[in-house]
Amino acid sequence: MGDFLLEWYFWVKALHIMSVISWMAGMFYLPRLFVYHAERGSNSSELSETLKIMERKLMRAIINPAMIATWTFGLLMVFTPGVIDWADIWPWVKAAAVLVMSGFHGWLSARRKEFARDENTRSGRTYRLANEVPTVLMIIIVIMVIVKPF
Ligand code: HEM
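Above: inputs. Below: predicted complex with protoporphyrin IX containing FE.
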């Protein structure tokens, strides 16, 4: 198994990065749609119904599969011999940031379902702030995997 993972390591990493790009694209875009939805999409308006379709498709066709692919290829690399030294600190910081990112994914999913039922209670400002969460996490993760400062 270890030899197999070593042989395919760079392909797995390439697939991991493609999945990460897709996941992040969705995580940046969905809260932006929620800003429009909260500020301009009054219940059952034409705009609101269009936004519901866009949000559902973005979540189901891009964000969910991309998160599963990111985790799958990421864990394959975790199990590749010699890739991660758990005595270093950076893998723990990355793991923590990735767990928060996954939790934020769950939070966005719950908010999407509220919008779909016309039950959103949050303001556009909340979703503007929410937009910053994946940005900050992405910056931390990329510094951890590339610079490996500790
Ligand atoms: C979802 C769970 C994740 C797991 C289990 C995981 C695991 C890994 C592992 C083991 C590596 C190889 C590290 C190395 O070769 O030094 C890696 C590389 C990488 N990861 Fe992740 N990762 C995950 C999510 C993410 C996320 C969310 C991002 C960005 C926002 C990300 C960005 C990267 C990048 C850019 C690399 C390439 C670093 C290099 O050039 O070696 N990963 N990941």
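The helical segments are 2-7, 9-40, 46-78, 90-116, 124-130, 132-146.
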